[in-house]
Amino acid sequence: MTSILLAIAILGYLSIIFESPIRINKTITSILTGSLCWIVYAFLYQGNQHDVSEKLVQYFGEIAGLLIFLLGAMTIVELIDLHKGFSVITNRIRTKSVLKLLWIVGGITFFMSALLDNLATAIIMITLLRKLMPKSETRMTLAGVVVIAANAGGAFSPIGDITTTLLWIGGQVSAFGIVKILFLPSLMCILVPLLIASYRMKGFTMLRVQLSMAEVIKEEKMRGSVSVFLAGVFGLVMVPVIKSITGLPPFIGVLMALAFVALVSIVYHRHKSLEEKEKYSVASALSKVDVSSILYFMGILLLVYVLEEVQILSQLSAFLQESLPNNKVMIVAIGVLSSIVDNGSLVAATQGMFSISEYPIDDSLWEFIALCAGTGGSMLIIGSAAGVAIMEKEKMTFMWYLKKITPLALAGYIAGIVTYLIIHLLIH
């Protein structure tokens, strides 16, 4: 049975990696692989099949919590976007200096992705860049910096990236602990690339602006933008606070935050016609949510839990620990691998490989996994959701990114790792 499940899992992962050549959506592949593995496990199980059913229901309770959390958080972001709430930040970008714009874009992306999520932040920032300047080498470089900054910002926040969200909901890290220990290493992951990019771009002094700043501001402004934006940010920031105080799962906090943002929206549109209200409703925001990515993680987690149930992941963990000098080397390799394989699935696998009883909450192993898996995906354009989104919107080629942006991302990755190791050495 173990060999059959392992073969299905490997075939499924390969299909996900080579999604483009085989032209099968990775969401379909992950759902098929995860469900097929459970069916095979139940069919070949030597015992009462009712036991398998009970285990699946228990695991799916944990999966459902994550899916509701992601759905709620994504809906809040879409509600803010419907009200053009992000213009609160983007409208304040008024420089025509390339170097200033580089640092402003990098800084805003870094902090915004920690409060929202790296994918939404990357889409917002690339949309802004496309309004400010025509397509050029400069704009593509700025877009590449957005990818690095979005992943770096998400790495130290429990709600900023799927990797840290998985570890936070799984009980491997605490919200305060991950922010405290990973903020500086994550900052170095974007600071070093910004310094290198500044040196490269110092010859460019002015931007060819496609639209004047006044036109951009006029286009984006609408009633209620500030209120909905502040409500969304406040609601999302309160999610880890509610979990810390009450001990309830994070999806409860997200649902409350969603209701809060929706109420603020309703206040601004209560006198409008039903048709106008629908444009700014939760239902409208839900229609824009990337549900396929949520279903993708459902399939991945189903797969991970069945591999954990048959002890495959624990055996893999033992093999890696025997083969590699130490866990840190293995985690650095996981970070590099996350630029090829989806980082969420890698982190989900490591959760099954290492026991929380052996590595308790806020152990350095989990913190290092969050840093490496979260930021390692920046090294290739296909290594993160933010990178894939910008690749599609900017029509950026794999080879151009590899040549121009990968060295920046690699330098930041190394700087973040070195910074973390120094901090860990000083603390312990």
Description:
- With 428 residues, the protein is mostly helical.
- It has one domain.
- It is built from 23 helices and no strands.
- Helix 6 packs parallel to helix 8 and helix 7 runs parallel beside helix 21.
- The two termini are 43 Å apart.
- The relative contact order is 0.15.
- About 1% of the residues have low confidence.
Secondary structure: elements and pairs:
Layout: H1 2-17, H2 19-22, H3 26-44, H4 49-82, H5 87-90, H6 98-115, H7 118-132, H8 137-155, H9 162-169, H10 175-201, H11 213-220, H12 225-246, H13 250-269, H14 274-279, H15 282-288, H16 291-309, H17 312-323, H18 327-337, H19 343-353, H20 364-376, H21 385-394, H22 398-404, H23 406-427
Helix pairs in contact: 1-3, 3-4, 3-16, 4-12, 4-13, 4-15, 4-16, 6-7, 6-8, 6-10, 7-8, 7-21, 8-10, 8-20, 8-21, 9-19, 9-20, 10-23, 12-13, 16-19, 17-19, 18-20, 19-20, 20-23
What is the number of independent domains?
A: 1
How much helical structure, as a percent, in the residues?
Answer: over 70%
Q: List SSEs in N-to-C order.
A: HHHHHHHHHHHHHHHHHHHHHHH
Structural class: mainly alpha
Rg over CA atoms, rounded to whole Å, is 22 Å
Mean pLDDT, to the nearest integer, reads 84
Shape: globular
Biggest sheet features: none
Number of E-state strands: 0
Tally the helices: 23
List segments where confidence is low: pLDDT < 50 over at least 5 consecutive residues. 209-213
Q: What separation lies between the terminal Cα atoms?
A: 43 Å
Instruction: Give the strand content.
Output: under 5%
